[in-house]
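Long-time lurker, first post. I've been practising inverse folding by hand and with some scripts of my own, and I keep getting stuck on stretches where the structure tokens seem ambiguous. Below is the full token string for one chain I'm working on. Before anyone asks, I'm not after the true native sequence, just a reasonable design that respects the backbone. If someone could post their per-position residues I'd love to compare against what I wrote down in my notebook.
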């Protein structure tokens, strides 16, 4: 899950699994329950301590960011941004019919930034500057020449075939960058509790652009000794499929011949590396309550992986000592023709791990202490140790502080090589005079190791990390926590290590926030809810009270102190024909007119957007509501080459994607009047520019990364005014309403040199209560969106219509068809779920844009 991704980058996978699969503690004394409440403040809800303290009827939301620091390239400044991961996790679970349990969890994380593709001696100049400002270009140099002395020490060179007698054996990461990509995972678990233990079955799927997997797990526990001792077990199976598109700029320089039939080409001519893998996991553990304040745990796990286990984006530099080229060598030395070979790993991996932890509750200070150790080893030659220590300390007033520290160390895999030297030619060309034919013989695999990788995660290193979480019990079943962790990875942190591999050293941090809601406690605290439109007054039906799902800020809370938590999912899709205004245009017209003053070489074929928005509303008074709406967005676009257009390497990127946290709207809703089932309120607020407007993508081999299409940036980059005026009415089974709202840009340009256009929207709707709990809605929407003002102030592609500011905005007419279900009685009375499909009716685009298909909106509102 997303919360463990940064750890997974640093630690042996079975060490991570040992923590994630820890046994769930049995119910025990009030002292241990206090320890459990302290665990709720931990930053990573997926960690074993938080997993072990799940609450029936609980929903969780976690958001966060993992950010790496720059790597030392020893004299070269890279144009690439370091790796960044924005992650989102939403989960809910509960008990049905007393003994049946369910848990549903959705995770999404979006990766962007640069990562090492290889390791090479500094004289190869893989990150050499290619621009006048000395900044390295977009694609690394993974071929070249190296000169060695008689001891195979690398000699200093100027990159133009001129060497000196000075030895320069500094190793450097060769950095490469790619467009952002998102991973989505969904998991469902169903279990049943028995007096003597429990059994659960879970399964799910994880989807990435280049890797998909499905998994299933069986877990169970057995209670012994009056619940003082718990035995637990687990079995897991996963099947994964790799379908990786190699960097089209680097493909000519990467040798993939050792993969044979696993290398293929797609319809656009992009080279693919394919493969499948199967993973099996077994786990057994025991938890024992030594006394009312002490819990001991021990876990043993075994893992087996088989199939394609290599990383298709990592290469190994090989210096081929071609005998026919040694006339280029220094006196008494050697000349190396450096080529990049796609890494090879064994097709099997067997792992064993053991772990233990002790947890102690100190009643005098109301403190929970946890000390853990895990050891893992595998047949790849990696031995890994992890030590961790954590404290849970209540501070009073509902606050809990949880500081922690962790140390990890591993040695290198048997087949880890920074680079290789091979006494052979990369390829030998022979001419046969008798047949007048030419034959080419490739390098001999028998003169290289059977497996080789320069992936820094297989090297010997250590990490030291520390952090803290601050949790707050807000009452009524709601908990909130904020967390920060700082990681330092260094070669000399390894047990018995040294600074020889210090080129791999870097720092990183993770910051996250989590919201935990006990739904049963929430509803019991306020069984009536807090929304004026769910009150059921004036002889109305609950189901007709709310506006359609697609209407933002369409209702208010009417009781001072009331609180609402809402989740909104919005999916929109554009696909099909390219339009100018509302007229379909040909490829020839797009080539000639859509990218003026240049010719277009590509056009979008499909674009989709997913937005997750979290609505938090609080009513300090009946006439005033305050609202904040953080949002997580991701977008994908597929391009196609235009018939008759210039060759456009831009379109060879099969899919462009971005994702992460967007802008942050903050609003105040002011009640204007309410009488006889009618209501009106004014909304006024601002949107803070928290979403990135500097997302980049690869353009070509020669250029530095350029800004991605305007419409795929994560925010506006400007402070924006958000005014709105909303009217609603209701009588018996009928509801209706209207809203006028807008977005007004308060700045002329953002940090990237442009400003999105203003937007004005008018909409009306009507609803009918089919039953007391279900209503249907019909909504009409008119939107005016101005074009983009200004333009990117840096490198960006110009060969496709979405690369031009004039091809944005327009006039749009839409119709929405919706359903809303509102619980009318019982524990969750007045909680609401809404669905709506918004269908385009008429479109008048500015410039040239892709035809709109429609959008789907789903909302869940919890008022208390």
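-- Answer (accepted) --
I ran through it position by position. Result:
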């Amino acid at each position: 899950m997303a919360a463990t991704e940064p750890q997974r980058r640093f630690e042996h996978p079975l060490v991570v699994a040992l923590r994630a699969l820890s046994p769930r503690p049995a119910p025990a004394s009030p002292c241990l329950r206090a320890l459990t409440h302290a665990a709720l403040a931990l930053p990573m809800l997926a960690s074993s301590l938080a997993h072990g303290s799940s609450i029936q009827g609980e929903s969780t939301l976690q958001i966060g960011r993992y950010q790496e620091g720059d790597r030392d390239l020893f004299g070269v400044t890279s144009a690439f941004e370091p790796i960044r991961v924005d992650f989102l996790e939403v989960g809910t679970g509960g008990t049905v019919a007393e003994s049946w349990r369910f848990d549903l969890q959705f995770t999404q994380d979006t990766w962007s930034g640069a990562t090492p593709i290889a390791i090479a001696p500094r004289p190869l100049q893989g990150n050499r500057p290619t621009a006048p400002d000395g900044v390295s270009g977009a694609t690394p140099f993974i071929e070249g020449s190296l000169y060695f002395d008689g001891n195979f020490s690398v000699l200093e060179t100027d990159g133009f075939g001129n060497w000196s007698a000075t030895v320069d054996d500094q190793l450097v990461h060769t950095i490469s960058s790619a467009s952002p990509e998102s991973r989505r995972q969904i998991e469902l678990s169903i279990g049943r509790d028995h007096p003597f233990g429990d059994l659960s079955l879970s399964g799910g799927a994880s989807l990435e652009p280049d890797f998909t997997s499905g998994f299933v797990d069986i877990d169970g526990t057995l209670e012994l000794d009056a619940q003082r001792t718990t035995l637990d077990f687990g079995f897991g199976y996963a099947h994964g499929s790799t379908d990786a598109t190699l960097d089209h700029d680097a493909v000519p320089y990467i040798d993939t011949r050792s993969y044979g039939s696993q290398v293929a080409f797609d319809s656009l001519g992009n080279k693919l590396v394919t493969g499948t893998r199967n993973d099996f996991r077994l786990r057994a553990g025991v938890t024992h309550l030594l006394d009312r304040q002490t819990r001991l745990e021990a876990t043993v796990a075994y893992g087996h992986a088989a199939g394609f286990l290599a990383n298709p984006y990592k290469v190994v530099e090989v210096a081929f000592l071609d005998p026919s080229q040694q006339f280029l060598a220094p006196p008494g030395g050697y000349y190396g023709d450096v080529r990049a070979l796609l890494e090879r790993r064994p097709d099997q991996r067997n792992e064993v791990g053991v772990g233990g932890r002790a947890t102690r509750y100190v009643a005098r200070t109301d403190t929970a202490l946890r000390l853990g150790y895990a050891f893992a080893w595998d047949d790849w030659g990696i031995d890994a140790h992890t030590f961790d220590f954590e404290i849970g300390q209540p501070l009073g007033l509902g606050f809990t502080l949880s500081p922690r520290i962790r140390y990890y160390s591993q040695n290198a895999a048997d087949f880890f090589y920074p680079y290789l030297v091979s006494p052979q030619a990369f390829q030998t060309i022979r001419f046969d005079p008798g047949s007048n034919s030419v034959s080419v013989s490739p390098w001999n695999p028998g003169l290289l190791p059977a497996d080789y990788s320069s992936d820094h995660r297989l090297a010997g290193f250590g990490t030291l990390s520390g952090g803290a979480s601050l949790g707050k019990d807000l009452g009524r079943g709601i908990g909130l926590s904020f967390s920060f962790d700082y990681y330092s990875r260094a070669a000399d942190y390894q047990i018995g290590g040294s600074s020889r591999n210090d080129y791999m050293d870097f720092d990183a941090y993770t910051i996250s926030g989590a919201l935990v809601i006990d739904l049963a406690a929430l509803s019991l605290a306020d069984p009536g809810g807090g929304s004026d439109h769910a009150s059921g007054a004036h002889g109305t039906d609950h189901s007709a009270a709310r506006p359609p799902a697609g209407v933002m800020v369409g209702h208010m809370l009417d009781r001072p102190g009331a609180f609402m938590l809402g989740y909104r999912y919005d999916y929109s899709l554009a696909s099909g024909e390219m339009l100018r205004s509302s007229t379909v245009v040909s490829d020839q017209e797009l080539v000639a007119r859509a990218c003026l003053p240049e010719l277009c070489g590509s056009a979008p074929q499909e674009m989709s957007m997913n937005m997750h928005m979290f609505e938090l509303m609080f009513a300090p008074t009946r006439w005033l509501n305050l609202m904040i709406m953080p949002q997580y967005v991701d977008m994908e676009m597929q391009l196609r080459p235009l018939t008759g257009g210039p060759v456009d390497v831009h379109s060879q990127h099969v899919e462009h994607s971005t994702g992460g946290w967007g802008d942050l709207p903050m609003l105040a809703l002011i009640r204007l009047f309410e009488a006889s089932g009618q209501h009106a309120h004014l909304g006024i607020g601002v949107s803070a520019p928290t979403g990135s407007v500097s997302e980049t993508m690869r353009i070509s081999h020669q250029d530095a990364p350029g800004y991605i299409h305007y419409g795929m940036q994560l925010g506006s980059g400007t402070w924006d005014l958000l005014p709105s005026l909303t009217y609603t009415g209701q009588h018996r089974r009928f509801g209706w309403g209207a809203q006028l709202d807008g977005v007004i840009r308060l700045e002329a340009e953002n940090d990237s040199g442009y400003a999105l256009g203003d937007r004005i929207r008018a909409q009306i709707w009507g609803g009918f209560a089919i039953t007391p709990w279900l209503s249907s809605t019909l909504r009409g929407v008119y939107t005016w969106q101005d074009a983009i003002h200004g333009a990117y102030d840096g490198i960006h592609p110009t060969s496709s219509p979405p690369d031009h500011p004039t091809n944005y905005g327009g006039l749009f007419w839409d119709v929405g068809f919706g359903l809303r279900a509102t619980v009318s009685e019982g524990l969750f009375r007045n909680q609401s779920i809404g669905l709506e499909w918004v269908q385009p009716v008429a479109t008048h685009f500015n410039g040239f844009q892709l035809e709109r298909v429609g959008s789907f909106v789903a909302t869940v509102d919890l008022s208390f």
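A couple of notes from the structure itself: Helices lie at 5-10, 13-20, 30-39, 48-51, 519-525, 587-593. Residues 1-8, 21-55, 524-529, 533-540 have pLDDT under 50 and may be disordered. Happy to go over any region you disagree with.
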